[in-house]
Here is the input.
Amino acid sequence: MESYRLLAAMYGISRNDCQESIDRLVELLGLRDFIHQPVRSLSLGQKMRSELASAFLHNPDIVILDEPTLGLDMMAKERIWTFLKNCDKTILMTSHDISDIEEVCARVVVLNNGKILFDGCRETLAAKLGTPGRAVFEFGNENIVFDATQFDANDIRLLSAEPHNAEFALRNSRMLPSLINHLTADNHIIDIQVFENDLKQLVKRLYDSA
Here is the structure.
C-alpha cells in the first residue's frame, strides 16, 4: 500500500484521488487479500497483478505492457485478461503467448527480425493467408437449398455439400447471422458448429511464408 502512495506522490496525485484509484484497482484486480503484504512474500501472479495496479494508478491514456502474463497459471491469466479487456485504455502489449493477444487485442502486429510481417486484425490475417473460419451445418432435409448469388464470395462461400450436411467458409463470425437467416428460409437446421481461426496457427503460417 505504501508503494502505491509513493507512486501517487511521484505522479502528483492527491491523497483522495490516490485512495479512490487504489480502491478501484484493488477491486478490479482482486488485490484485497494481499494488498498489505510485503512484496517478497507474494506469488508471481500476485506480483503481476500488483504491478498492473501500479501501471494504472495514475489513470494513463496509453499503457505499454511486456509479457504481462509470463509464467502465470490459467486462473491468474484470466483475471488479468478480464481486467485489460475492460480497462478502456489504449494498450500496447508485446507477448510470445498467443493467448494474450487472442484474449485482449483487436489489432495484431507480427514482427520478424525487426520487419513487420503483418499489421491488422485476425480476420484480415486469415483472409491474407486464405484460411477463413468455417461453419458446419446439419439439416433435417436431405437436399440443401443455398443461393450463392446472395453473398459476396469473400464473405461466405459454400465449401462442400452432402445429404443433410454443408460446410461454409466465413470471412468472420459476423457473417454467421446472415447465413443462418438465408438457410432457415428453405431448410431445417438441426445443428451448427463454428470453427474460428486459430491465431497461433495463422501466425505460424505467416512466419513459414516469410
